[in-house]
Amino acid sequence: MNTRSLLTAVLLMGGCAGADYVYTKPGATTEQKERDKNDCLFSSRMPVQSPWGPGFRVNQDLYRRCMTDKGWTLERTAQ
Prior knowledge:
Elements: H1 3-15, E1 21-24, H2 30-43, E2 45-50, E3 53-58, H3 60-69, E4 73-76
Antiparallel strand pairs: 1-4, 2-3
């Protein structure tokens, strides 16, 4: 597993617990959404220092802006 895939998996695991919103884009495929999501996660990461050494965290504002710039809309899921 390469570093980018590992980073994406770790970041996504942290965000799955309270998934009340979803990005939508008319006509977009699942593959396109995953590609855009991974690109935005990668481009919005910020270096941080932790007790376990250097790492990254996602700047949520940059992530949301990136997804919006790619044409995605954040919508609340039906509960």
